[in-house]
From TrEMBL:
GO terms for molecular function: ATP hydrolysis activity; proton-transporting ATPase activity, rotational mechanism. InterPro entries: V-ATPase_G. This is Uncharacterized protein. It comes from Asparagus officinalis (Garden asparagus). Signal peptide: none annotated. The keyword Amino-acid biosynthesis does not apply. Coiled coil: none annotated. Keywords: Hydrogen ion transport, Ion transport, Transport.
Amino acid sequence: MWDKEVLVSAGRNDAQSWSHSRGITGKCNGLQSSGDSGANVKRLEQETESKILQLKEQSSRVSRDVGDMLLRQVTTVKN
């Protein structure tokens, strides 16, 4: 059961560090109210899709790392 908790925690920590490093705090950086809203929507959709793909890649890497760590822990012979 703790395996799932470790994976969830690792994924959460990775997402938090990613969003912090990008300065994402619920604000839309660069969004101007006087600009073309259609262009802003399209740009935000593209940025969102890009960020989703990055998060998927990072989460799969974390999952592999956690899996490897757990496998090493289970297979290590303790004296």
